[in-house]
Structures are given as structure tokens and as C-alpha cells.
Amino acid sequence: MVDRRGQPLSRDAMAYVLAGGRGSRLMELTDTRAKPAVYFGGKSRIIDFALSNAINSGIRRIGVATQYKAHSLIRHLQRGWNFLRPERNESFDILPASQRVSEFQWYEGTADAVFQNIDIIETYNVEYMVILAGDHIYKMDYEIMLQQHCDSGADVTVACMEVPRMEAVAFGVMHVDETDRIIDFVEKPADPPAIPGQPDIALASLGIYVFRTKFLIEQLRRDAATEGSARDFGKDIIPYLVEHGVAQAHRFSKSCVRTSEEPAAYWRDVGTVDAYWEANIDLTDIIPQLDVYDHEWPLWTYSEITPPAKFVHDEDGRRGSAVSSLVSGNCIVSGSAIHRSLLSTGVRAHSFSSLDEAVVLPYCHIGRNARLSRVVIDRGVVIPDGLVVGEDPELDTRRFRRTDKGICLITQPMIDRLGL
Question: Which residue intervals define the domain Nucleotidyl transferase in the entry (predicted)?
Fold first, then answer.
């Protein structure tokens, strides 16, 4: 569908990315950065998925609201997303919480993070607003959702994913009728409502919303004047519109972008250390569930200028090799054995060391004779010579952050405390 000027609807839309959350369940990974700024897939950040979806969908007006420990995120956005040009009716705004409404008020909720920047939004005079979370891994064509919103005449369209009904207990669940109109919104229900005609399937909200801009601004101002509101889309705006307006569900399967190699619609909340590790390690599969090699729907990011990865030494016990692994630029695998692991930019793995099912963030050094399995290693960590992780659960628990599934998160302060 096109608008009255013969353009796709995305050209008259603004993507507004909510990227202020800490993501505390990622533990020490978010001690110095917000969750959307956490590295993913070797050379990208989590927020790059929502931003890339917007660009690939044809949206050229983008705003990113930041708050918690935003320096790493803002630096990444400035370096990697500064190619949009005002003279082409494009824009990219970084919108930190800056007490613009009140000198005592930061962003109080997701809706407030939009409300406080209404004056900026109005200057762009766009017809539609696409509200996005900046902390999920997925590929989606927002143009398709915009078309549904326009065709249905809904006040709000909410992107939802079909999940097994009893797995929906961890989500906000949309109870819909036969036309996918939302008739109730239930947060983390013990007994999730099923989709009509599909008794074992529920619709879980993905935190992606489409509004007409004028209507959204009216609702934000109404909500801001409502005493006791949490100023949040999921807690306030959406439930209000379900009860007093027309809220429509958009099924993610209709707009999910995937290649012929991807077996199913892919969406991940990498909000825990276990989920983060699993999503990264999944990329090492022969046919991964998420295809990051899709040139028709590229993952845009800040690309450092780096030399190629290098593998050196070729003798028994000291052979630089990587099997079923992703190795980024500027990595040197020097007499080290890498298996089913992901090495981000600039990693050095030294002789006689081994990595098995390891997610290694940028510019780490793996010392000689170190053996590491089922680990996440934070940026810049120097692993001492001979360190062994992943073989003694009790010892690992005392020294590092070990999850119930046996994944060890390693940071430099944890290494420093070892005194090695």
C-alpha cells in the first residue's frame, strides 16, 4: 500500500526506539552499558536489529531514547548511524533523558520517554509512529505492519508472536477475537488466553506498536495528566486503548523477514546470561535459526576498519584452528583451538589454549594453556595463563557469575580478584 503521494507508508513514518533500559538480568554485562548496547554476533550491538529493520523497511526518520549508562550506546550510534541526511528528509535523533519537561523528572516509563519529546516529534510532521524496543533480536518488515494498521483503522496495532500457550506465562498476552481485535491484555497470566480456533497457542506482545502520530500525542498527553499512571505503554497506554478504543494484533509471522534457510520466524529476548549465550552460540550452527548473512536484509552497524582474522602455528598441540565458529576481524588465533565459539573483533587467543562454546566480546586476550568452556567473556578481559573454567562447577561458582545452566560470565574485576 502507498500513501496519497505514491510512497510507501514507511516514508511517512518515524521509528522511535526505546533504548533506556538497563537489562539487569544480564548481570555484569550491563554494569557499564545499557542492554541495547551489549555486543551481539561478533561485530554488532543488540540495538542494531531494531534500527536495521527500520532502515530496511524504508523508514528514514529515527529517534532513539536513551537513559541508563548511555555513553557506550550513544558512541556506537554516533559512529555507526550518522549516515542519514536532513537534506534528503532523513533524520537520526539521539534523545537522552535531559529533564526537558521538568528539572526534576527523568524518563519515568516507556510512554514518558516519548511524551517528553513530543515537540521534537511534531517538527517532523510524520503521519505514523512505530514504537520499538531496542533490546530484541529479530528481522521484521515494519511496512507490512503499517499497511495493516492503515487498512484496519485501528487506534493502535500491537505486534504479537504466536507461542505455545503455557510458555506465554512470561509475556504480556493479547486476548483476541476471530478478527484479531484485542479484547483484553493480560500481563504474565497463570492461564494465558488462547487464540480462537487454536487452543494451544497464545499471542504474546513484542512491545512493538504503530499509531497515527496525532492520536498518539493525544493519548500521551491524556496519560501524563492521569494521576497514578506508570507512564508506560504496556501498563497504561495499551490497556486503556483495549478498553476504550480499537486495538488490533499484528502477527509477527506475517512480517518476519527470513530466508529460505531460516525454518521459522525468529525473535529472541536475550535478557538473561543464558539466553544471550544461547543466541550467540546458535549462530555457529551449520544452518542457524537466524541468518545474519542475508544480503537482502542486511544488519547495519558500526564497522571498525580492521585487518582480517589470522590463524598461526601448525604443529601438534599448537595449531591455530577454529571449527564451527564465527571469528571476527582483527582476531589472531595463535596456536589455540577454537570450537563452536564466537570471537568478536580484536580477540587474541594464545598458544596451547582452548575455547569451547565460548562467547568472547571484543579485545579479549586468552592466555597460554587456558581452557574455557561454556563462558561469556566481557569486553577487554585478559584471561591469565593456565586458567580453567567450565570443568569444576563449585570452583567456577566461587570465582565467577555461574548460571543455573552452567554458563560462566567472566569480567575483568572477577579476574583481578583472583590475584593471578
Answer: 16-284
**For residue range 130-163, what is the model confidence (pLDDT) as tens digits?**
999 999 999 999 999 999 999 999 999 999 999 9
> In the block, which residue shows the cell 579485545?
363
Domain that holds residue 73: 9-284
Q: Which residues contact 121 (CB under 8 A, 6 or more apart)?
A: 14, 16, 63, 114, 129, 213, 217
Is 343 in the same domain as 265? no
Domain final position from 284, 301, 321: 284
The residue among 42 and 103 whose pLDDT is bigger is 42
Binding residues, as ranges, are 107, 172, 187-188, 205
DSSP 8-state symbol, 193: P
Residues 212 and 92 in one domain: yes
Q: Which three cell numbers stand for residue 317?
A: 598441540
Residue positions forming the annotated binding site for alpha-D-glucose 1-phosphate: 107, 172, 187-188, 205
Q: Say yes or no: 180 and 233 in one domain.
A: yes
Contact 252, 160 (CB under 8 A): yes
| pLDDT 10s digits, 320-339 | 999 999 999 999 999 999 99
Instruction: Supply the DSSP symbol for 35.
Output: G
